[in-house]
Every structure is written in structure tokens, then in C-alpha cells.
Amino acid sequence: MTSKTTPEQPLPVRTVLQMVGGWIGKLGTVWVEGQITELTARGGTVFLTLRDPVANVSARVTCPRGVYEATVPRPVDGARVVMHLKPDFWVNKGSFAFTALEMRPVGVGELLARLERLRQLLASEGLFKVDRKRRLPFLPGVVGLVCGRDSAAERDVLENARRRWPAVRFKVENVAVQGPYAVTEVTEALRKLDADGEVEVIVVARGGGSLEDLLPFSDESLVRAVAACRTPVVSAIGHEQDNPLLDMVADVRASTPTDAAKKVVPDVGEQLTLVRQLRDRGRRVAGGWLDRELSWLAAVRSRPALADPVREIERRAEQAEQLRDRARRSLGASLDRAEDSLGHLRARLVALSPAATLERGYAIVQRPDGEVVRRAADVAPGDELTVRFPDDRVSVRRDSAT
């Protein structure tokens, strides 16, 4: 088309638009899934916008009223549908839109089946593992809150958190929590709060709703965005029975927005009570220990060695004196016995001594070598002998055999 035109030979607008319309008319029909928004009816035609459930992309659709009313249940804003569409181009206005030939609502069963397949996929990648979940800070300085504007969930979180800990600070990001813009806005708010260095924990809160209303919180891109956050995330979506995929990937799941406030900040009254209990327990423990030590010290001081140390010395001195006197008596008795024995031995020795015999008038005859002469026959004539008396001795010689 462009090869046949020049600045000198341009094509009229009508010709170009007719060519575009002819090209679009050759595309044929296509089945498309999306979410209905901006639904209006005028006369025999229903006008709506079919929005991509993930990306910020949409297209205008015109639907004959008969096709719309033949759909059971009849779709409303926010409903998921599958439409058989034919692309149309209006040459007069140069506008493009789809014409609906058939419309089928996406049933709850099919939605649940899709969610289950997505859940299994994300679980196989480890996004739901317990060991990757982080603990919440005990007392966060700043809490990030992602919720709907002026919503009950926002009031529940703020009021209950401040009632529990009045000093807590919040950074609130108001976003769409249902509809075609919810996924994009919630994801962007998460990334903004995660990049804020002051925010220590992020709460994503929304009140209850139908399965279709809560579908944005099971969106794959949002779930992956939560898994990629460096800041701990608390999911508080719907009520206890609601269980979007965001609950499974978040670090902490709260059953309700009120429960999220209880999990994020401690109760100042409970903490003061706990501090008081711990303080009293510490006092009891320390008091019991002191009482035991004082009792032990009193028992030690009451012992005789410490109660009257001089008395113990005196007792030991008396024992030493008794032992000394006993030793003296024992030694004296031993000496007396030895002296008596010695006297007896001396008397016996004196009685048996030759000198005593000499004192009684006897004399001892000895040869010069000291041998005692016991018989006269043993003395030959001319032998020199010594006669010993008690006080002196005399030398003699035998002259004859007589």
C-alpha cells in the first residue's frame, strides 16, 4: 500500500480506511476470554469493555441485546466471560471494535479448576514453602497497608492496631481491590511499599466477597510479586473461609483485617502485664535465692568453729596439754620400769661377779697370760703365778711339787 503512494500522489483518508477495514474484515472470528467492565445498554445493543484480567489492556465490544440476554446467568460488571468475537472497523469514524456473536460466562467450577492448576504450578516452584516465609518484627516502626479507599478493612486495621499500640505508624496505599484494575494497582502499591526503607511489614487487606470479587488476589502476577518482596507480607483477604492464593504465598495469613492488626503489632496492655509478671517472677526467684543463701550463711555462722573461735582454740589447747601430760606419764613410767630392771640386773651382776666372791675371802690364781688355775696339779714346779685378791695381787713361784 505504501509503495504506491508518494508525497505528490497521496491516498485519500476514505481509501486508506477502506483498505484497513478490508484487511480487518479478513481476520475472521476469534474466541476471547476477559472481564466485563463499563457495561451499558442502549436500545437493542449492549456496549461493554472487555478487559484482560492481568495486563492493563482492554477492547470495546458491541453485543446485540439478544446475544446478551441469551447468556445465562446474565453477565454483570466484573464477570469473567468467554466471547466469540468478530473484529469490525467503522470507516466513517476510523474506529475499531469487536462485535459479539456469542457469550459464555466462566463458571465457578471452571474458575476453581484454573485456580487449582495455578496453585499446583506455584507450589511446584516452592513459592508456598514454609521455610521461605519470614517472621514478622516484634514491634514494627512503620506498617505499610494496601487496601481500598475508605474501606471497612482499612478502618479495622488502623483502629485495632492503634488501640493495641497507639504509637504505631502506617503508610496507606489506597487501591482498587476488585475489578479489572485491582491486580495492577495492588502490585504497584506492594512494590512501592517494599522499596520504602521505613516500612517493616506490609498488610494487604480486603473485606469479604464472592469468588469473582476475590479473584485478583489469586492472580499469578500478584502472587509472584508478593513472593519477590523483601519485606514480610501479611495477607488479610476476606473472611476465615476465603482462601485466595495470596494467603498461601504471604509470610503470615490473617483470617480477617482485624486479625491482621493483632498479628502485626503487640497489645500494649498484654505486654505491660507480661513485663509485670516477668518482673514479679524475677523478684521471687532472686528473693528465694537470697533467702537460701542467708539461711546457709546463718547455719555456717552458727557452727561452733565460727560462733566461738576462741573456745575451739582453748579446747584444742586442752587436748594438747592432755596429750603432753599423757606422754610425760607414759615416758616416766617407762623410765621407772627401765630403772628398776637396771637395778635388778646390777644386783644380779654384783652377786655373780668374781669381785664379790673375792670379797668373801677367796683368791684367784692366774697364769701370766691370765688363764685361771683351777687345780694344783695343773701347776708345775717353777711356774710363775699371780694370786689376785679383792684389792690387789701378788706374784708367786712354785718351788717344789708339794
From TrEMBL:
GO terms for biological process: DNA catabolic process. Residues 127-293, 298-396 form the Exonuclease VII large subunit C-terminal domain. Residues 13-104 form the OB-fold nucleic acid binding domain. It is an enzyme of class 3 (hydrolase). Its EC number is 3.1.11.6. The keyword Hydrolase applies. It is found in: Cytoplasm. Belongs to the XseA family. Heterooligomer composed of large and small subunits. This is Exodeoxyribonuclease 7 large subunit. It comes from Streptosporangium saharense. The lineage of its organism: Bacteria, Bacillati, Actinomycetota, Actinomycetes, Streptosporangiales. The gene is xseA.
